[in-house]
Amino acid sequence: MGKGCIFKSCSELDERQLLLRGNVFQHVVVLLFGLIFLNAMLKDCGVTWAEGKGENWIIFWAGAALGLCEFILRGLNPAGRRQGVLFGFFGLGGAVLAGLSLSHMLAEGQPLLSGHMLTGTAVALIQGAAMLAIFFTYLGKTLYDRRTAAGDED
Question: pTM (2 decimals)?
Fold first, then answer.
């Protein structure tokens, strides 16, 4: 693997791919800085909007979901040929997390909000939804690409 490259070797990427990846990371960093700044302002005003580390998890998954969905929609492959497996695990993990959160909420009558804050169950449900959004974006893009490829052949 190339030095300083995370998922794929940098030698496999052309200039267009590197520019697009840079743009995606720039969008994620700007979003994360904005959300962290907003969260700090809310904390300074005495507003806590999620229990425990829930605020941090939601901010993280907002950035991760935005970045990975943008990677998918722009046709960038963060994991090369193995990306289907990677996004499949996101779908599986998101479905399990959302399912467990919903069952816990329904079985024990756990509310989504408690004292004007998101509960731990609500945070887990949001995390699962973010993971499922990544999976369904990949699934939709894959189906769209197959359909347009089949339309070009006709």
Answer: 0.84
